């Protein structure tokens, strides 16, 4: 179009078409950005709520177990059977460790009878352990390998309670408790053990093994993950249980400074991070356990794909999976539009 | 006016070339960094998988060891009779109900129960494979033929673990193999093909010429380019399950990553950067248009 040329009708038509095209493109871009922002805000809220729920359940479960452990320990320390001279000598092998003078009481406890308190009945085993690490007095749900008295000298929970190092205190556990997530040496399954020191020098450690189903058998909507990590980034619990105690979150998130700073300061906040090389949105919050944090994660790629596919405006209903465990945190947004109200957590498939 | 325009076009072109070079260099360095990251991530993932597999076997061995050591022996008792009692105890302990799937233990020599028990207490365990089963062995005497063996079906022991690693998306297929390349267990898209072949046959012959073939790679942490069913893969390897001083035996964990997918992942640009670029180009167009608009409107070039 030169300086002295007239504006032709064709030019006007082309200009109109270009404007329409530009306007359409701009509208799609704006709608996509708006949808992505709305979805991101929703996911941020869900991550926060998931983190809070995990913390509540984790704290409640550990609190109940600590109360059960303290009560069982105190009841056993006062029992006459504990004065048996055979218990004053450390065990040398499994045969000597299996001599249990308190068998009458522990058998009743194994059947969940005559327990001093009943705050946590789901425990799988309770044991008093001698200084050498042998379980000497044990109440366990037998017939599945858990009733054998085993050597636990290498376990972190035993060493923590024996040396009084790394223990945390709470109202339910005033003398200090240690918590360890590991793979059982009697069943091969993941489990959690809570330990506490005792006042008996022959049996200085009491321990309670628990299934911790909210963290070991979680039910989550697709795309969401979580990890409970200590201050060094070691993953103690993960939504994919195969990663429990085998992953360091700091390394796998490429040492994201904000994640480390939030965990170091025991703060809570949202952040973007790469996790196993893929972009994730994450929420960090501290737990009742000193130095431990809960990190909830959501992969960004599906959200982006959802926006680009153009089907993002009606929020996809996430099916509430039937639960195999007791974790009831399934999301159900129902008919609510995104961002129009708080997320409702549905209790699904809860069983005792 | 003409001279100014001419000098501007030269300066502009130079600046453009410089800017493009800087961008290109930054992108190239980013690609290299990402390549390095993805490679180390895959090795890390494999290391975790190998460590978990090792723990899994060690855990089963420990359960078995505790039961066997806890079982007393009678004077003159034969190993067959004693192992029957051990098997009964394994059953009572509910090991298989817990998904451990331990087979009936077997002794490959004519030894007394006392000798077997003493050998088990004294010796270090080693892991090997037989077909699609993992085999834990305890040497019972100086003779290499005298061992106490225990079989574990690989699919039930490793299924959940390997499937979970495939779901992580870094590897197309993960497998556990012996050091001669026999695949014991595989999970993922190419599991069928891997089970049907030996890894020694998959590793290209040119890389095998250095001596030892697959075995050479299996004893070290390595990656090698391979072709499987016509597709290009990068095979990552991590030795696994070498217990105690057992250097000769042991297994290897293998991860197959699609070479094209790895390359594309290295070339990926952050969406934020793409959006920033789009905004910059749009802004540049808008600025250029608005600066030319008045001269066009007034009819002077």
Give the SSE order of chain B as H and E letters: HHEHEEEHEEHHHHEEEHH
Backbone CA Rg of chain A:
28 Å
How many DSSP-defined strands of chain B? 9
Low-confidence stretches of chain A: 311-352
Counted beta strands of chain A: 12
- What's the pLDDT, averaged over the residues of chain A? 82
The rough form of chain A would be described as: rod-shaped
Class per helix and strand makeup of chain B: alpha+beta
Helical stretch count of chain A?
8
Mass-distribution shape of chain B: elongated
Distance between the termini of chain B: 10 Å
Radius of gyration of chain B equals: 31 Å
Major sheet of chain A: size, sense and barrel closure? 5 strands, antiparallel
Strands of the largest sheet of chain A, in order across it? 2-1-5-4-3
β-sheet strand percentage of chain B = 15-25%
Strand content of chain A: 15-25%
* Number of contiguous helices of chain B: 10
What is the gist of this entry?
The complex is a heterodimer of chains A (352) and B (301). Chain A is of the alpha+beta class and 352 residues long. Chain A is 32% helix and 20% strand.
